[in-house]
Amino acid sequence: MKQPILAYGHSILKQKCKDINSSFAILSQLITDMWETMYNANGCGLAAPQIGKPIRLFIVDSKTTYENLEEPDRSIYFDEDDEGIKETFINAKILERSKDLWDDDEGCLSIPSLSQKIKRPWSITISYYTQDFQQQTKSFSGLTARMIQHEYDHTEGILFTDYLKPLTRKLIDSKLKQIAKGRIKTKYSMKFI
């Protein structure tokens, strides 16, 4: 079932989330709802706090982005053997970040109609549990790593706007206030403060 996405300004979006275990009630249904909610909003990732659940759970689909890119663009955003992922991340912990950084535009379903260039590491190594609570430690790069870092940040109470320089932040402040108050139109359901 599609869930409303919390808009910028909700306190849950700024909370550090809690780990869960395999007995977490309705986990499978929650994950199903998150995929449905994300695809309904044309997103590529979604974290549980964005639908009001302050737990360390997020999903990422970089495979669809890879498939929709033209061949020359694939080599810009994805390493040679990377064709993207569709993955659930539970209790994730980033273990390593590369020193190699890159800028790219980022947006967020909780901050619709606004994107900014954000500098992030090109590659990461992350430990997490899958939907079936199988522990994994994997390395990701390029756009897949960027999407994971963005959603991981949500479980840490961090939004992409937190990385902006003070002047840039000041320039978009009125837009952020409009989003928080619901003075925007979206094609998906949202909860405003």
Describe the structure.
- This protein is α+β, with helices and mostly antiparallel strands and 193 residues long.
- The protein has a single domain, classed as Peptide deformylase (Peptide Deformylase), CATH 3.90.45.
- It contains five helices and nine strands, in the order E-H-E-E-H-H-E-E-E-E-E-H-H-E.
- The protein has helices at 27-40, 63-68, 71-77, 142-155, 166-180, and strands at residues 5-6, 45-47, 57-61, 86-97, 101-108, 111-121, 123-129, 135-141, 190-191.
- The strands form three sheets. It has a five-stranded antiparallel β-sheet with strand order 2-3-4-7-8, with helices on both faces. A two-stranded parallel sheet has the order 1-9. Strands 5-6 form a two-stranded antiparallel ribbon.
- 32% of the residues are buried.
- The mean pLDDT is 97.
Quick gist of this model?
The protein is α+β, with helices and mostly antiparallel strands. It is built from five helices and nine strands. It is globular, with a radius of gyration of 16 Å.
